[in-house]
Amino acid sequence: xxxxxxxxxxxxxxxxxxxxxxxxxxxxxxxxxxxxxxxxxxxxxxxxxxxxxxxxxxxxxxxxxxxxxxxxxxxxxxxx
Length: 80
Hints:
Blueprint: H1 13-25, H2 30-43, H3 50-60, H4 71-78
């Protein structure tokens, strides 16, 4: 079982009021939204992620490279 703790955050009154009103409109507890935001923030700190590292390693090995004379040529090669 996870122990819950309280946290205080200083913010502008207008920001708090708008946030609370929007959370109420969505029928979601404000605390749950804050927890979701915190989890998302932490997840984005795993940069570079495994997919990015794999792509960087492929380029280092000369894989998945596109050589183009200009942007139009690159887009053509990529099928865009």
